[in-house]
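[Q] Does anyone have a clean structure-token version of this?
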Amino acid sequence: MLDAASAAYLEAEPPRVLVLSDIHGHCGLRRALEAARREAPVSALVLLGDAWEAGGGHGGCQEWRAMVSRLARLSGARYVVYIEGNHDGGAGRCLEGVARVVEGYYTLPGSDYAYVLTHGHLYARRELEECLWSRGFTTPESDGCVVEWGRRVRRLLGLPAGEWLILGHTHRLLVDERARVIHAGALCERVLSRLSLDWRRSLGYLVVRDSWVEIRRLAPDGRVVASTHAGPPGGAGPRRRGRGLVGRLLARLRARP
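[A] Here you go.
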């Protein structure tokens, strides 16, 4: 559940939220720091999982805490959420007092539109991996696996039509407008240690505003090479700002594990 101070802050000020996914240790740390500096100030920072490389060690809790604290400081964020990914065992222990750690998914409150954020590996992961192995992780056809998986996750979560789903895990930076699903990309080119993904389909991050999401595509050196946006949701008019919206969202947060 949101603490009272954070809930009041996000209610009082229209949120501008920086979303960074799949940093994978030193592979994407420089890009993450540049993004935090570039987008400052933001209301909140959401790290969408996989901050570290599997099997490579976390470098100790203090290093992990220092990295998240530095990202928050550079971005100016007063509220930090860390959504655990499949490479993030022990995040709760390491980040206590630095970020709110979420195991499954998180609903962003305080916006005209609701956004549900998750790393995604807890939902239909086997189906995604079977599809990617059959089509090849880095082929153009593999994007179809990612799109279908995003729609499957949305159905499993039972999201209403007016909510957007934001996913990590796949290292794709793409938007499925029809299903209102955004894949948040990565700040590291690697999908697996043995595979590489074209940086044009992977490198980038998101900035969530009141009624749209800005999508920043990056070059390998960290430069922004394209900036587009998704939303607002077609067929779902903007929700009224105010205590009714925030109250409904906070009630949903309290009801979720």
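[Q] Thanks! Anything notable?
[A] The two ends are 9 Å apart (CA to CA).
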